[in-house]
Structures are given as structure tokens and as C-alpha cells.
Amino acid sequence: MKSSSAANIINGDLSKQNNWEVEFAKELSVSYKTLVLTDLQQTIFWVNAGFQRMTGYAADYAIGKKPTFLQGVSTSEKVKCRIRNKLNTGNRVSEIITNYKKNGLAYDCLITIIPLFDSHQVITHYLALEREAA
Fold first, then answer.
1. Domain count, the chain
2. Domain harbouring 124, CATH code
3. Model-level pTM?
4. Domain of life of the organism in this record (predicted)?
5. Which of 82, 87, 118, 133 could share a disulfide with 19, CB 3.0–4.6 Å?
């Protein structure tokens, strides 16, 4: 998603506060609808406006929850395991996962999760870039 406000929020104060070392302009150059920022426990810390448009859930509902609240009966355990394993190694991961909108409709979500490292190479947060898969 090419959103100057989202890029400014992530690339500005949050990035400086946490000493993140990532090229946000490059990461955000791909078209994504939703940006989700979580802490190390994967609790949602911030979402962009595209989150509500894509999922139907307002930001104030999502903040404080884990993204797993979007999952349901058709969400693949294998995909969830691959995501966990990749994140546990400190690497970025891209997968297509079945999520559910607020209205109950399932959708395939192309998700790229980027671990955000500080200047000491310690992961402080995760940034998920999401869009509906074609």
C-alpha cells in the first residue's frame, strides 16, 4: 500500500523510537491493503485504515488482540506452522492464509511478515503487509 500516512507513522517516530533498521519505502512499494504492526508476542499494536476496509474490523477492536482472531475453520494448520517456524528463525515470511472477515466470509490473504530489528539486531516488532490473494 502506498500510503504516505502509514509510511510516515512507521518510518517516523516508531522507527526512530525502536531503532528499526529496515527500508520501509522499499517494503511499502508493493501494493498492500493492510499494514499490521505487532509486538514480540504478536499482539496488535497498530493497524492502518486499510485493515478495516479489508477485514471489516475497526482498529480499536483489533488493537490488543492477536491476528489469530481472523482465523477460523479453514485456516491451514500447516501454513500457521510454517509462519511460526520462519518467524522463530528471525526471517521474513510470505504465505497465503485463509482469514475471516467480520461478516464471516473467508478470504485468502497474501501476508508478508517482516521482523523489525533494532540497531543491536534484536527483534522488537513484526510488520505484516497484507492483501487479498488473487
1. 1
2. 3.30.450.20
3. 0.77
4. Bacteria
5. 118
